[in-house]
Structures are given as structure tokens and as C-alpha cells.
């Protein structure tokens, strides 16, 4: 039978994890059931939004008659006539529809592959069978999806080429149409059947393109170490990338190569749709191909070689878009799927909970898992370690000097570098930035050294946290003076940073944890993902510090507010590394247009700001969870004290 003290501890644990039990397991179980939908939706939204400006420029280049315009000239013209919104004109429909289309495409593709495997058709693990089955499944998916996606693609083209179509129709000052007005214009001119204008080349493009795309991606993943379980194994030694970047690399290569092969079909489709939307007589696939090959002047046809080059107009910007969007798509899908898998397999998942049991029954003995949980979170102070006097004697008399552990020596150098950087902060921005970031980078080095040399220590962990918190607080204090209007905000961030980490550290020690980073999923899913994935931890911490340093540089003087990315400097850099023939038209034009009036610190600050906000949210969660843990310990100790008092009174 369990004692009254054990009952009190069990009730305290149940109260602490009640919220997680009610919502956490159900959430991750549902996420696992719909993993394909969730990962494909998130990946599609991210990749579509970021790549849409390039897709818009590609469509405009394909629809332009005569000589091919330079990408930076076209981007400048779009910005001058339509503003920054012109690059995302017509993005709403693709953002809303492409997630559904791609999720359905993935489902059809996966279902076809499973059906072939069930019938034992090309079911070996050879590279040939992987390529053929993926190609067949991809073609099936592309052909099915093209039936539904053609109207959405037509609306997107109508919105992207709105200004050009208006000029073709003789409208001098066209008013921008909404998505609904674009649909009404198409239906009023060509009827509901007009929504399938260009369906022929669209069907060919999606069928062949999707087949090649999936076949190349699966073949590359298999070649680069994907295990039969679907997880990424060891990367071949000749491939100089980390395993986490394999999905991005394979997605980029598959997207660019498959798109390049079917690009002429897409060019024909865009020309056909533009002509039809301009209320001109319809031209079929072969007639459109002949017009492109011979040129706009039928009396003086151009050489066929030049005509074929017209079919690849805009391929550079399209290749850049495909590299970005498809690489990002698979990277996000792979990482979101991994997060869902880790969540569903966490120690507190419903499956494990049902097998081992979690709640302490007052009338039954604790299981091993429950006893371990109680011991970890509710053991007495005497179980944690020596008292203060014993600890001081050990530190003084022991031959093993923890103060001289290599990770701690690195920590001391971090303190010195941070101190020097703060000393030169008022007058030497460049030196401050270099020293401050060097101190931050050493924060990663001391952790690796501690694990490699088996020299982890509580002193090193606290020293590391104190150094981080102190350096950040000093930087924020300087920003409070640099930006007086936001002084209260920076003071709040200092208080939040210190209080959340102190509360978290104290609650970890109070529960007997060996490290503040050993957060389990049953305590907080957010903190578990934050502390247990070193990449996530590094990105949030580094981007958070980078944002504050960028604010410091912006306010440090006029010379930093004018340092930007000039098109000439970027072009010279690309020429020096041999990419001047591929990238400069896109990169120079884009940077000159969008980033021309922003300094480099401003650009860095804009990129890091969302992550900095996320870091502050994590601090709030950390503060709240630590508070609940300490309150739970208080309640448990108070219940034990009352029980002891009752026993004494008897």
C-alpha cells in the first residue's frame, strides 16, 4: 500500500502534468495521423510565398515579345509601375490552392507507390526500380492534379500578367483587379470553359514534370544514404553537406533539372494563355510553337536556333525559383515530419502512457516509471548531494580541479572577450561586433569540448548561462540609451531574460536535474524541442543576439546606416566565383530593387526579428513552466509537512 506521503506526491505530479495529459497526447496523435497534410501544407506555404516574386518575373519574361529583357530591368519596371506588391500580384490563389494541390499530389503519389509495392511490381531496392516506380507514381499524380489545378494556374497567370494583358487590349491606365474580378473577366469573355484555357500543355507539363521530379528526388535520396525506414543515414564522404541539408539539396536538384526539361512546354502554355486572355483568336500548341520558333514577323522568320532559345526565356530566374522553392519545400517537409515523429514517440505519448501507466493510484504501488518520476522530481535535499560545507571542502581538497576543466577555460576566455567588447562598444562598432560574436561562437565550442572530454559540470553550466545573460543585459542596456523611446521595452527584455533563466535554473536544481537543458516533453513540449535540438537552440540564440547587435550597428553612426549591398559589388563577387553568367541578372536586380535603400545591419535585423520574437516567447514559456514546477514542489512539501504534523499529534 502506498503511504500518505506517496499519495501526496502522486497528486502533486498529477496536478503538474494535468494540462499536458489533456491536450498534448491528443494533439500529437492527431498530428501523426495527418503528418503528410501538415508537412506538405507548411512546406508549400513557405516555399510558395518566398518563390512567388521569381515566378512572377518568369511569367512576364515568357510573355514578352521580341528580345528578352534583362531580369533587373524587368524587376525595376515592375517596381516602378506596380510597387513592391506587384511581385506578389496574384499570390493569394496559389497560397490557398497550392497546399491542397500538393497535399493531394503527395497522397496520390504515395498511394500509387504503395499499390505497386503491394502487388510486388518493381519492389526491389535497386536504383532502377526506385526511379521507375517513382516516375510512374509521379506521372499518375501530375495527370490527376492537372485537372484541378488548371483553373488556379490560369488565374495566377491572369493576375501576374495583368498590366501586359491590359496593354495588349489597348487599356492605357488599367486598374488592378481582385482575384474575383479576374475570374469574372475570364468567364465573361470565354465562358466557364475558358477556365481550362491552355489545359493541353498544362497536362503535359504536370504529368511529365511531376514524374521526373519525384523520380529524381527519390533516386537522389537513395543514392545519398536514405534508409529503407525513410530516415536519413550517413551521407557519402564525397558529398560535402550535412545530413540535415540532404533534403534541401535533393529537392533543389530535382526541381531545377525536371523543370529545365519541361520548361519549353510551360513557355508555350503561358503564351497560349496570355493570347487568349487578351481576347485574341485562339492558337493551339503547335501553332504557338511555330510562332515562337519563327518569330513574331512571319514575313521575315528568324533562325530556328534563335526561336528555340525563346522557349527557354526566363529559365535563369525560373531555375533560381525552383532551386529555392523545391529545396525549401523538402527541407520543411522533412523537418516538420521529424518533429511530428519525435512528438509522437516522446516518453509521454499516449501509446507509451497506456503501456507503462502514468497516474499514481493511491491504492496501488508505483510502477518503475512512476517511481523514477517521483524520485527525480520529489526527492529530498539529502539525496541531491553534499551540503554546503562538504562541497566547499571537496572543491578545496580534491586533486581534480573543476575550475581548470577545458570547457571552463573556454568560458573564462568568453568572459574576457565579452568584457573587452563591451569596453570598446561606445567608439569601435566593428571591433565590438567581432569580439562579441567570437565570444558567442565559443559558447558552442565549450559545449562540444565538455561532451568530448567528459568534463561536463554544474559550475560550467551556470558560468555559461551567467556569461550569456550578463553580455545580453549589457548590450540591451546600451540599446536603451541608444533608443530612448524604447528604453522601457529593452529594460523589460533584460528583466524577462534574467528572471526566466534564473527561475528555470532554480526549478531544475530543485527537482534534482543534472542540467537545466534536460527538459522532458512531459514538462513542456516547446522547451523540450528548444533545448534538446542543438540546431534549434543555436539558431534561436544566435539570431536573437544578432538582432540586438544589428540594432546597435544601426544606431552607432551614419556610416553604418549607409552600408548596403550595391549591385556593382555583388556582381563583382559573382564574377570572382564564376557565377556571373547565371546569377547576376536575378541577384543584382533583386538586391538593387528591394535592398537598395536598406543598409546591411537593417537587412540582418529584418531577417532576425521573427526569431528574436520567438526567443522572447520561449522565455515567457520558460518562466511560466518554472513557476508551475516550483509551486508544485511547494504544494507537495506543504502536504508532507501537514501529514507529518498530523502523525506527531497522534
From TrEMBL:
Disordered, as annotated region: 355-388
UniProt entry tagged with the keyword Transport: yes
Cellular compartments annotated: Mitochondrion membrane
Membrane-spanning segments: 245-265, 402-425, 471-496, 537-555, 599-618
Keywords of this entry: Membrane, Mitochondrion, Repeat, Transferase, Transmembrane, Transmembrane helix, Transport
Biased composition (Polar residues): 361-373
Solcar repeat boundaries on the chain: 31-115, 129-223, 242-339
Signal sequence interval, chain numbering: none
InterPro entries: CDP-OH_P_trans, CDP-OH_PTrfase_TM_dom, CDP_ALCOHOL_P_TRANSF_CS, MCP_dom_sf, MCP_transmembrane, Mitochondrial_Carrier
Statement: the UniProt record of this protein carries the keyword Transferase: yes
Listed GO biological process terms: phospholipid biosynthetic process
Topology in the lipid bilayer: Multi-pass membrane protein
Example of a GO MF term: phosphotransferase activity, for other substituted phosphate groups
SUPFAM superfamilies in the record: Mitochondrial carrier
Family, per entry: Belongs to the mitochondrial carrier (TC 2.A.29) family. Belongs to the CDP-alcohol phosphatidyltransferase class-I family.
Protein name per Swiss-Prot or TrEMBL: Mitochondrial carrier
Amino acid at each position: 500500500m502506498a503511504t500518505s506521503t506517496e499519495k501526496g506526491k502522486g497528486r502533486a505530479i498529477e496536478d503538474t502534468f494535468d494540462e499536458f495529459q489533456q491536450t498534448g497526447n491528443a494533439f500529437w496523435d492527431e498530428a501523426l495521423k495527418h503528418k503528410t497534410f501538415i508537412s506538405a501544407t507548411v512546406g508549400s506555404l513557405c516555399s510558395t510565398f518566398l518563390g512567388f516574386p521569381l515566378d512572377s518575373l518568369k511569367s512576364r519574361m515568357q510573355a514578352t515579345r521580341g528580345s528578352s529583357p534583362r531580369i533587373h530591368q524587368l524587376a525595376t519596371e515592375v517596381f516602378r509601375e506596380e510597387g513592391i506588391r506587384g511581385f506578389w500580384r496574384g499570390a493569394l490563389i496559389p497560397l490557398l490552392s497550392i497546399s491542397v494541390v500538393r497535399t493531394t499530389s503527395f497522397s496520390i503519389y504515395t498511394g500509387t507507390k504503395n499499390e505497386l509495392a503491394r502487388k510486388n511490381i518493381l519492389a526491389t531496392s535497386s536504383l532502377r526500380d526506385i526511379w521507375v516506380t517513382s516516375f510512374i507514381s509521379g506521372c499518375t499524380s501530375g495527370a490527376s492534379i492537372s485537372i484541378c489545378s488548371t483553373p488556379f494556374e490560369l488565374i495566377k497567370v491572369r493576375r501576374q500578367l495583368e498590366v501586359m494583358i491590359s496593354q495588349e487590349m489597348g487599356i492605357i491606365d488599367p486598374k488592378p483587379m481582385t482575384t474575383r474580378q479576374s475570374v469574372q473577366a475570364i468567364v465573361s469573355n470565354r465562358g466557364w470553359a475558358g477556365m481550362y484555357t491552355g489545359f493541353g500543355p498544362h497536362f503535359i507539363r504536370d504529368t511529365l514534370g511531376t514524374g521526373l521530379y519525384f523520380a529524381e528526388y527519390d533516386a537522389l535520396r537513395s543514392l545519398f544514404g536514405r534508409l529503407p525506414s525513410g530516415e536519413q543515414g550517413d551521407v557519402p564522404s564525397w558529398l560535402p553537406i550535412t545530413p540535415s541539408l540532404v533534403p534541401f539539396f535533393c529537392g533543389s536538384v530535382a526541381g531545377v533539372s525536371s523543370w529545365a526539361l519541361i520548361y519549353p512546354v510551360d513557355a508555350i502554355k503561358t503564351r497560349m494563355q496570355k493570347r487568349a486572355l487578351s481576347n485574341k483568336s485562339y492558337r493551339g500548341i503547335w501553332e504557338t510553337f511555330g510562332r515562337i520558333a519563327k518569330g513574331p514577323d512571319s514575313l521575315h522568320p528568324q533562325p530556328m536556333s534563335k526561336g528555340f532559345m525563346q522557349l527557354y526565356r526566363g529559365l535563369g530566374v525560373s531555375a533560381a525559383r525552383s532551386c529555392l522553392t523545391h529545396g525549401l519545400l523538402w527541407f520543411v517537409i522533412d523537418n516538420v515530419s521529424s518533429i511530428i515523429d519525435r512528438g509522437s514517440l516522446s516518453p509521454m505519448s499516449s501509446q507509451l502512457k497506456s503501456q507503462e501507466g502514468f497516474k499514481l493510484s493511491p491504492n496501488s504501488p508505483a510502477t518503475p516509471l512512476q517511481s523514477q518520476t517521483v524520485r527525480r522530481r520529489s526527492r529530498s535535499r539529502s539525496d541531491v548531494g553534499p551540503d554546503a560545507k562538504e562541497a566547499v571542502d571537496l572543491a578545496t581538497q580534491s586533486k581534480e580541479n573543476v575550475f581548470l576543466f577545458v570547457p571552463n577555460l573556454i568560458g573564462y576566455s568568453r568572459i574576457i572577450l565579452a568584457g573587452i567588447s563591451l569596453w570598446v562598444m561606445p567608439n569601435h562598432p566593428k571591433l565590438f561586433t567581432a569580439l562579441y560574436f567570437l565570444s558567442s561562437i565559443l559558447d558552442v565550442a565549450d559545449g562540444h569540448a565538455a561532451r568530448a572530454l567528459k568534463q561536463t559540470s554544474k559550475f560550467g553550466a551556470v558560468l555559461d548561462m551567467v556569461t550569456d545573460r550578463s553580455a545580453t543585459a549589457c548590450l540591451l542596456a546600451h540599446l536603451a540609451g541608444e533608443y530612448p523611446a524604447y528604453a522601457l521595452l529593452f529594460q523589460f527584455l533584460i528583466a524577462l531574460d534574467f528572471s526566466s533563466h534564473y527561475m528555470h535554473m532554480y526549478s531544475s536544481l530543485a527537482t534534482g536535474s543534472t542540467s537545466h537543458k534536460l527538459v522532458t516533453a512531459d514538462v513542456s513540449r516547446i522547451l523540450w524541442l528548444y533545448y534538446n535540438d542543438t540546431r534549434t537552440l543555436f539558431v534561436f540564440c544566435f539570431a536573437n543576439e544578432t538582432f540586438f547587435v544589428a540594432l546597435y550597428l544601426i544606431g552607432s553612426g551614419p556610416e553604418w546606416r549607409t552600408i548596403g549591398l550595391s549591385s556593382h559589388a555583388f556582381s563583382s563577387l559573382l564574377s570572382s566565383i564564376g557565377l556571373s553568367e547565371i546569377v547576376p541578372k536575378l541577384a543584382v536586380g533583386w538586391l538593387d530593387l528591394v535592398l537598395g535603400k536598406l543598409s546591411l545591419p537593417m537587412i540582418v535585423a529584418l531577417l532576425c526579428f521573427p526569431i528574436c520574437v520567438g526567443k522572447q516567447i520561449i522565455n515567457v514559456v520558460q518562466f511560466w513552466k518554472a513557476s508551475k514546477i516550483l509551486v508544485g514542489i511547494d504544494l507537495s512539501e506543504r502536504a508532507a509537512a501537514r501529514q507529518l504534523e498530523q502523525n506527531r499529534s497522534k
